[in-house]
Specification:
binds heme C, two-stranded antiparallel sheet, disordered N terminus, 8 helices, mainly alpha, elongated
Length: 289
């Protein structure tokens, strides 16, 4: 996964910095003045130098990068990284590096090409691979961690906007609505041991058809393409959305010294969700808008 690559990158990249540079390059900088191999695809809009190598201007949009005072450089400048700003650094890396080789094995990909269960993947979360044909009682699930903690380690507490705010107890009315919905639609929307909303209230960890669609635990949005995952579509409103938020984001940036990027995107294909969020079904179980 990319974190590992970043780590390796941070460990070794000092080595490529040549001593004759006028200014000391940052010690752990990415290599430069190399001709990209076939593994790398440089966007057409990223210039190479005359020897067809990546150099400062390939990655940095700031003019005459080499001659800038490195100590004073504004890393939050939107041109610091070419065609920035980028929401996360890795988005920039993926402009040239292929995403796949850096990706972690996706544990949610649970079925092989024949549709058989890949048992090794079950063992990340279960003490043994359960037989989905059996009726499994909650105490027989053999989860390695309580359900409310089982996603952490691999995912962040805040994998997306709004995930954190949801980690609380629904009030009594909402709880009743959830229970009623579960019974009427024969679906699971589990709460944590403390009655709080957790990742698996909205998400299922299982690829579709690992657990029968007839069972409450197997009811989820129909999408089995784990390689593709979630697909967002760029939306024409994005420009308006960004313009609308621009001032507030700039204020926030000057207060915190961090650069924020927001994009309005629509979910095109969803995955690993118990109910569709795209059409609002999931949200309306709990919310009355
Ligand atoms: C392959 C892309 C790439 C190339 C080529 C490249 N850089 Fe960078 N540069 C980066 C990345 C990525 C960072 C930021 C690392 C971070 O923020 O952790 C960076 C950071 C910097 C910084 C800020 C360091 C700091 O942390 O304060 C300077 C200055 C810089 N680069 C100068 C240069 C110069 C000069 C060249 C040409 C000799 C160059 N870069 C070539 C990707 C590149
Ligand atoms: C402008 C394109 C470009 C960008 C952006 C870029 N890289 Fe690279 N990176 C390269 C090239 C070219 C090489 C040299 C290896 C090659 O050609 O296969 C390389 C090599 C590396 C290597 C050494 C791996 C090896 O095969 O030796 C690591 C690690 C790496 N990059 C990490 C990153 C990270 C992390 C980022 C984002 C911070 C990043 N790169 C951004 C073009 C880029
Ligand atoms: C990322 C963690 C994770 C992985 C990996 C995982 N499970 Fe689960 N599993 C859970 C959780 C959490 C539950 C609790 C019920 C729920 O949330 O739907 C569960 C419940 C189950 C149940 C009980 C469903 C019911 O009817 O209540 C079965 C059967 C099951 N898992 C089978 C599997 C199999 C087979 C694999 C491997 C292909 C697997 N699981 C991999 C987290 C995981
Ligand atoms: C052993 C590590 C691991 C565990 C545990 C784990 N995940 Fe993941 N998850 C991944 C990987 C790897 C991906 C693939 C995408 C990526 O690299 O981020 C992923 C992707 C996802 C996606 C996005 C699907 C996509 O492809 O776009 C969702 C949603 C998700 N996980 C939810 C959960 C939930 C909910 C839990 C806890 C029940 C959980 N995951 C537990 C490793 C894990
Ligand atoms: C209130 C419902 C809800 C809760 C709670 C929630 N999510 Fe999500 N999550 C969503 C929706 C909706 C999406 C986007 C649609 C999709 O999954 O296909 C999403 C997307 C994701 C993605 C993919 C992000 C991407 O853009 O690739 C990951 C990973 C993920 N969630 C993990 C988690 C984890 C881990 C938790 C617990 C900390 C969690 N979610 C809590 C509703 C929720
Ligand atoms: C399992 C129940 C549940 C589901 C499903 C759910 N929510 Fe929530 N949501 C809550 C609870 C509880 C809160 C926190 C209390 C409150 O603000 O009502 C909350 C808070 C929010 C907030 C913050 C409100 C504020 O005042 O800041 C937003 C926005 C939100 N939810 C949107 C969504 C969206 C969008 C979806 C569907 C993708 C969704 N929720 C799905 C229960 C849920």
């Amino acid at each position: 996964m990319l974190l590992r690559a970043l780590f390796i990158f941070l460990l070794f990249h000092g080595v490529f910095v040549s001593a004759e540079d006028v200014q000391q390059m940052p010690a752990m900088h990415h290599l430069f003045d190399v001709k990209p191999s076939a593994d790398i695809s440089i966007p057409d809009s990223f210039p190479l130098n005359k020897n067809k190598q990546i150099d400062c201007q390939t990655c940095h949009g700031i003019k005459d990068m080499k001659d800038q005072d490195f100590k004073k450089i504004d890393k939050s400048d939107k041109d610091f990284f070419r065609e920035g700003p980028y929401e996360v650094l890795t988005d920039f890396c993926y402009r040239c590096h292929e995403k796949k080789p850096y990706q972690r094995d996706n544990v949610h990909k649970m079925l092989d090409s024949e549709g058989s269960i890949i048992e090794d993947n079950c063992l990340y979360c279960h003490q043994e691979a359960l037989d989905p044909e059996q009726d499994i009682k909650p105490e027989e699930r053999g989860l390695r961690l309580p359900a409310q903690n089982i996603c952490y380690g691999c995912h962040l507490y805040t994998p997306h906007f709004n995930a954190l705010i949801h980690q609380q107890k629904p009030d009594e009315d909402m709880k009743k609505r959830i229970n009623k919905y579960e019974q009427q639609h024969k679906i699971n929307l589990p709460l944590s041991d403390d009655g709080e909303i957790m990742c698996t209230t909205c998400h299922t960890p299982h690829q579709i058809d690992v657990i029968s669609r007839e069972k409450p635990a197997g009811k989820q949005v129909v999408n089995s393409d784990m390689d593709e995952g979630i697909v967002y579509r760029k939306h024409p409103w994005n420009k308006v959305f960004i313009a609308d938020k621009k001032d507030r984001l700039e204020t926030l940036a000057s207060q915190t010294g961090k650069k924020y990027a927001l994009n309005y995107q629509r979910i095109e294909k969803e995955i690993l969700l118990r109910l569709s969020a795209k059409d609002g079904t999931l949200c309306l179980v709990c919310h009355e808008f």
